[in-house]
Design a protein that fits this description.
Elements (H helix, E strand, L loop, with lengths): L2 H9 L3 H23 L2 H17 L9 H22 L28 H20 L2 H12 L4 H8 L3 H19 L19
Helix pairs in contact: 1-2, 2-3, 2-4, 3-4, 4-7, 5-8, 6-8, 7-8
């Protein structure tokens, strides 16, 4: 069944059709929330809130990219959570394994085909990338995640954040610049392709 039909039926109260839309976009929504918040439990809650909001607001969807519309719901829910955290700051703890050691490898970087050495390097690089993402201003983080991680085009991101295309491009350029600057602190972890022609002086 095509997406437009699912949306129309969901508007008429068909939960099965809406659930089909949820299944289609839930991974993307969770990934965006997880990287925005750097907390999988909070991301799961925010994703659920976003889809509930989307269901209740289906009548406000005027066509175009449903994916962008859903990502806007997720982004708004993330911003609400981040504002709540600022009002009530908490200490973020890394998850622990059965040996009470920190788990530093995000699930989105896992690859069972890697050697143990590769796994360690990927875990360290993943931790570095997440640290740099978390350090970005919220409005930059959401744009770079939607474009470079989730693959949305500029127009979809413009719809998702409610800003002009020029703002999207400007924020993306600044976000990428800040990410490159941050990742210099983790130079030895970067694959060689990212280091060619730009060596760091000890």
């Amino acid at each position: 069944m095509d997406e437009e039909t699912l949306i129309a039926q969901a508007r008429d109260g068909d939960l099965t059709s809406f659930n089909s839309l949820v299944i289609k976009y839930q991974d993307m929504a969770f990934n965006l929330a997880s990287r925005m918040l750097d907390d999988n439990d909070a991301a799961a809650d925010v994703t659920q809130i976003a889809f509930i909001s989307a269901y209740r607001s289906l009548d406000s969807f005027r066509g175009g990219s449903f994916r962008a519309w859903v990502m806007r719901m997720v982004s708004n829910a993330c911003y609400d959570e981040l504002r709540r955290r600022k009002r009530r700051p908490t200490i973020s703890l890394e998850p622990l394994n059965e040996d009470d050691e920190e788990i530093e490898s995000p699930a989105w970087l896992a690859d069972s085909s890697n050697s143990p050495e590769d796994e360690v390097e990927r875990a360290e690089l993943g931790h570095a990338l997440q640290n740099c993402l978390t350090g970005l201003p919220e409005e930059f983080r959401s744009v770079v995640l939607m474009v470079d991680i989730e693959g949305l085009d500029y127009q979809e991101v413009s719809l998702a954040i409610g800003k002009p295309l020029g703002t999207v491009k400007s924020r993306l350029a600044r976000a990428r610049s800040k990410m490159r600057e941050c990742l210099r602190n983790y130079w030895e972890l970067l694959p060689s392709v990212f280091r060619l022609g730009d060596e760091v002086t000890p």
